[in-house]
Design brief:
The chain has helices at about 45-50, 110-125, 170-190, 210-230, 275-280, 305-315, 345-360; strands at about 10, 15-20, 20-25, 25-30, 55-60, 90-95, 100-110, 130-135, 195-200, 235-240, 260, 290, 325, 365, 370-375, 380-385, 390-400, 405-410, 415-420, 425-430, 435-445, 450-455, 460-469. By secondary structure, it is α/β, with parallel strands linked by helices. The strands form five sheets. It has an eight-stranded parallel sheet. Strands 14, 16, 17, 18, 20, 21 and 23 form a seven-stranded antiparallel sheet that branches. Strands 1-2-3 form a three-stranded antiparallel sheet, with no helix packed on it.
Length: about 475
């Protein structure tokens, strides 16, 4: 431990975090969650490159869900080479695991796995990086037969249900192993301050009914709460919003939940809700809203991929989001820092965003859906946060919304905006998000009504930063 309690909600503004005594937003571009479970992944250069760009978060899967080699993308970190998996359960002396090596003995934990897990989190902590541990992902029809908890892959014969029943309470023997696994992970990381515990990614993706996966998630939340009740530290719990807003699958009002999570821009398959979408629907719960998975870069993006990945990050953070993870397939099993790729541009863009927001006293700011009163044209998207009368930040971009991602629409743009500023004198800066360059700086005096401002010319996106002078 660093001497501080684990990352927590900020007491002055629970839309953001308090980490090691400082107001904190989490911004990153992370590998595909296999940093710990893949023995061939050298996580030291990976963590070093995040730290070099000032990025302060990563996300891992902790072993209940893994993938075959090259699944989704070549050298996928979540799909180790045959036999190179490092998972929570010990290997037996019985051959037959389809992804290489012997079957698993669910009655014994693997000491090397827990050493590697603890070392990864500790090394991340040395670099000021928070680790979100995702305990489960929805089982896919073609991946469930490869999981350690599938009945053919463990000595105990646990896991005889269909994939759509894995994230339910139907298979009592499987649920008992889920509980043991969650309890063990919770115990092992309790002494670490840079951890957020996430229950399950995409629980309804492959057909599990909301009432069934909701009950299963609730059970596992209880396991974390009960386990930590007898331990020194209490960690934040995160869960993705699925099912129906305010209904089954939405834990946002639940007192056990700390972090409200969405994926992508807008709604998508499996009744999942987008991170940006949740700023409009769930911000009022007064908890951090997290977008913890974007489209898979670069394979799911179109056109100007760099621009598309930039606009979703800026819109989310300047819309009041607290934690943003750009899912980055440039990292791979044998190139953990994505050396020789455009990764330096991806990380530089996020560094510019993080620097921009940290120049403001963001802990005093809130989502401001009324700031842009008029002037945002059709086909453009605008978001803002403010501390009315003292500081304002606004972001504007031109894109096509495809729910999972944006496709940017370059052009020659200049807007005349009417903004709901309180009266006062302000220093107004227009910033180019791609470079962080200040395009124009003005001193304005505002007395009554809406403040009219004209943007500099721009091609895709622009940001405003205003402080009372």
């Amino acid at each position: 431990m660093s001497g501080y309690p684990p990352i927590q909600l900020h007491p002055d503004n629970p839309h953001y975090f308090l980490f090691r005594g400082l107001p904190t937003l989490l911004i990153t571009s992370a590998e595909h969650y296999g940093a710990v479970i893949n023995l061939d992944f050298d996580y030291f250069p990976y963590l070093d490159v995040l730290a070099a760009y000032g990025l302060n978060c990563t996300r891992i899967y902790s072993g209940a869900y893994i993938e075959p080699e090259h699944y989704f993308i070549h050298d996928n970190t979540l799909g180790p080479r045959p036999g190179r998996q490092c998972l929570p359960w010990s290997r037996s002396d019985v051959p037959g695991y389809p992804l290489g090596g012997n079957k698993f003995d669910l009655d014994h934990w693997d000491t090397e796995y827990f050493r590697r897990l603890g070392d990864f989190i500790s090394e991340a902590g040395k670099r000021g990086i928070v680790v979100e541990i995702c305990l489960f992902n929805a089982a896919y029809p073609d991946t469930w037969p490869s999981m350690p908890l599938y009945f053919e892959n463990n000595l105990q014969g646990v896991g005889r249900c269909a994939c759509k029943e894995v994230q339910t309470l139907k298979d009592a023997a499987l649920v008992a192993r889920h509980e043991d696994y969650v309890r063990k992970i919770t115990q092992e990381v309790n002494g670490l301050d840079n951890v957020i515990l996430e229950i399950c990614d995409e629980p309804g993706l492959h057909g599990a009914p909301p009432e069934e996966y909701t009950a299963w998630i609730s059970r596992l939340m209880d396991i974390i709460v009960e386990t930590e009740a007898n331990l020194p530290n209490k960690h934040l719990i995160a869960q993705q919003v699925c099912g129906s807003l305010g209904g089954l699958g939405d834990f946002s009002p639940d007192p056990r939940l700390s972090v409200i999570t969405g994926q992508y821009v807008g709604p998508n398959d499996g009744k999942q809700f987008g991170g940006i979408q949740l700023l409009d629907t769930d911000y009022g719960y007064n908890r951090p809203v997290e977008l913890n998975e974007t489209a898979f870069y670069p394979i799911w993006y179109e056109g100007d991929r760099m621009g598309a990945s930039r606009v979703e990050a800026w819109e989310f953070i300047l819309g009041g989001g607290a934690s943003f993870n750009h899912l980055n397939g440039l990292y791979s099993t044998f190139n953990p820092a994505a050396t020789g790729t455009e990764n330096d541009q991806v990380l530089s863009q996020l560094k510019i965003l993080k620097t921009f927001i940290e120049t403001m006293d963001f802990i005093r700011m809130q989502r401001d859906a009324e700031l842009a009163a008029d002037g945002v044209p059709e086909g453009a998207f605008a978001r803002a946060i403010s501390e009315p009368g003292l500081q304002y930040a606004l972001y504007l971009h031109h894109s096509r919304n495809e729910n999972v991602k944006y496709v940017v629409q370059p052009g020659e743009y200049q807007e005349r905006l009417l903004l709901n500023f309180l009266p006062g004198r302000y220093q107004v800066e227009w910033v180019e998000p791609a470079t962080g360059r200040v395009l124009r700086r003005d001193q304005v005096r505002h007395e009554i009504g809406c403040l009219e401002l004209v943007t500099p010319p721009y091609s895709i996106d622009i940001a405003l930063r205003a402080n009372r002078s």
